[in-house]
Amino acid sequence: MTVIRGHWSLDDRLERILREVPFEVPAGTRSLTVRLTFDRSLGVLDLGCGSPDGFRGWSGGARDSYTIAAGWATPGYLPGEPEAGTWQVWLRLHRVPLQGLDYTLEISFDDAVRPEIEEPPSGERPPRRDIPDVDGLRWFAGDFHAHTVHSDGVLTIAELTELAKGRGLDFLTVTDHNTVSHHPWLGDGRGITLLPGQEVTTDRGHANVFGDVGWVDFREPADSWVRHAAGAGGLISINHPLGGDCAWLQPLTERPRIAEVWHSGWWDRRWGAPLAWADAWRPDLVAIGASDFHRPGDDGLPGSPTTWVLASDTSTVFDAVAAGRTAISAGPGEALLLRMGDELLALDAEGLILVRPDGSRQVIRGSRVSVPAAAGRHRLETYENEVMGICE
Question: Fold for domain 2-109?
Answer without folding.
Answer: Jelly Rolls (2.60.120)
